[in-house]
Amino acid sequence: MRTVVQSPLRMLFPSMASIKTMYSNLKPTVKKVCDLLQAEPQNKQEDTALRLLKQYIKSRSDKDLADLLHFLTGSSVLSVSKICVTFTSSSGFGRTPVVHTCGPTLELPSTYTAYREFRSEWDAMLASGYLKMDIA
User: Is the N-terminal amide bond of 104 cis, ω within 30° of 0?
Assistant: First the structure.
């Protein structure tokens, strides 16, 4: 295997600095994650939901941001070029975001009215542990 991959890998990564740069480029930041979101809100409620999502992303620490990205894409590093955001009108106990990591697509409920409730529901959902996608 060494003879097959050695030359192409040396061309891609001629130094340790180039490997570190690659990892740095894959590390999520608030701006990078917000820039991944692609949505076309059709009304005030959808616009509000998208604004709350971006506000939530901006409030995350580096570790929390990686966990959120893992939830949205299945990877804690930047492995996609976009996250499509569509909107649903679910409410009550049915108000749960649905994520399709193969796409990746987020079905975001548009029934949030305040950041406090958005943050509370998303924090509880992400902390619950049932979203673990790791294989032991």
Answer: yes
HEC letters along the chain: CHHHHHHHHHHHCCCHHHHHHHHHHHCCCHHHHHHHEEECCCCHHHHHHHHHHHHHHHCCCHHHHHHHHHHHHCCCCCCCCCEEEEEECCCHHHCCCEEECCCCEEEEECCCCCHHHHHHHHHHHHHCCCCCCCCC
Within 10 angstroms of residue 46's Cβ, the number of other Cβ atoms is 20
pLDDT in tens, 81-102: 999 999 999 888 888 898 998 8
Q: What is the pLDDT of residue 30?
A: 96
Residue 132 has a pLDDT of 56
Helices 62-73 and 115-127 pack at an angle, to 10 degrees, of 80
Low-confidence ranges of the chain (pLDDT < 50): 135-136
Q: Would the CA dihedral through 98, 99, 103, 105 be positive or negative?
A: positive
- Is this model's pTM higher than 0.90 or not? no
Phi-psi category of residue 74: left, alpha or beta, with phi > 0 → left and psi -120 to 50 → alpha: left
Strand-pair partners of 88: 109
